């Protein structure tokens, strides 16, 4: 899939979900695999940085996570 | 409901016998009835003497070179993905997604959950020589065990690391297979 699901853990770290071709839509995967209660954003893969040198320092503003909440 | 009692049904023409029609049909075999035509080499419900068995508990058993008929334990989920640059799944089975938590820190989520968290997870990884900055061809293949939250019925989280220290590393070829 050319989409990624971004969410923020309670400790502030960022999780990037890479959906598989499993028969579910990206929205269904987001609801299923984002930890319960955490908000997420679905983006194009091109929006995720490919330079992982400072991967642990990535952050996102909570106001960006508007596409749903993990169930 | 009609019932026909015969001792033998044979084909009149050709080599096949058709049961049912093009609409939805159910052919039921009563408990205690065996498909004995396959005995000794084929399908039966007798695990002691036949090559392929589906027993009453739903266990698939076969010989297939074991030397005896035994239950086959399947690969319940698998995935092959790239953890370098923009992580991406090459292909998978019974996997809904992977999560990139940090460098060398991943979760594999299952489409259909396992019955418990006591499965065996086979995880391998290696770098390659074609990407600048990678440690040429070194097969890390090392699982840094997580103290908590590693195995669950719906996912497995693991780290990939270099044996000589405790740092995590991304790898280009990461393979996970779940046996249960």
Structural account:
The complex is a heterodimer of chains A (71) and B (180). Chain A is an alpha+beta fold. Chain A has one helix and four strands; from the N terminus they run E-E-H-E-E. Chain B contains no helices and twelve strands. Chain B has strands at residues 43-44, 52-54, 60-62, 70-71, 75-82, 88-93, 95-102, 105-110, 120-126, 143-144, 155-160, 173-179. Chain B has a four-stranded mixed sheet with strand order 1-2-3-4, with no helix packed on it.
Q: Please give the order of strands in the largest beta sheet of chain A.
A: 2-1-3-4
Overall mean pLDDT of chain A stands at: 96
Largest sheet report of chain B: 4 strands, mixed
Rounded to the nearest angstrom, the distance between the terminal CA atoms of chain A is 21 Å
Which shape of chain A, going by the Cα principal axes?
globular
Question: Shape of chain B, please?
Answer: elongated
Which structural class should the secondary elements of chain A be placed in? alpha+beta
Q: Roughly how many Å is the radius of gyration of chain B?
A: 24 Å
Question: Mean of the pLDDT scores of chain B?
Answer: 79
Number of strands of chain A: 4
Helix content of chain B: under 10%
């Amino acid at each position: 899939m050319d989409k990624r699901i971004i969410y923020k853990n309670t400790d502030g770290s960022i999780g990037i979900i890479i959906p598989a071709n499993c028969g579910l839509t990206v929205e269904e995967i987001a609801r299923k695999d984002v930890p319960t209660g955490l908000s997420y954003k679905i983006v194009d893969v091109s929006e995720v940085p490919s330079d992982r040198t400072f991967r642990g320092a990535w952050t996102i503003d909570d106001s960006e996570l508007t596409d749903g909440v993990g169930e | 409901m009609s019932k026909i009692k015969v001792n033998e049904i044979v084909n009149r023409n050709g080599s096949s016998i058709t049961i049912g029609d093009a609409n939805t049909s159910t052919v039921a075999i009563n408990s205690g009835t065996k498909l004995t035509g396959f005995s000794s080499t084929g399908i039966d419900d007798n695990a002691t003497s036949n090559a392929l068995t589906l027993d009453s508990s739903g266990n698939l058993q076969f010989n297939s070179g074991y030397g005896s008929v035994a239950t086959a334990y399947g690969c319940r989920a698998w995935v092959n993905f790239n953890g370098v640059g923009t992580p991406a799944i090459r292909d998978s089975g019974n996997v809904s997604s992977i999560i990139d938590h940090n460098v060398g820190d991943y979760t594999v989520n299952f489409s259909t959950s396992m019955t418990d968290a006591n499965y065996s997870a086979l995880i391998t990884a290696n770098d390659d020589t074609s990407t600048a900055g990678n440690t040429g061809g070194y097969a890390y293949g090392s699982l840094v065990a997580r103290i908590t939250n590693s195995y669950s019925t719906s996912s497995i989280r693991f780290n990939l690391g270099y044996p000589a220290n405790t740092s995590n590393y991304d790898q280009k070829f990461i393979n996970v297979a779940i046996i249960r």
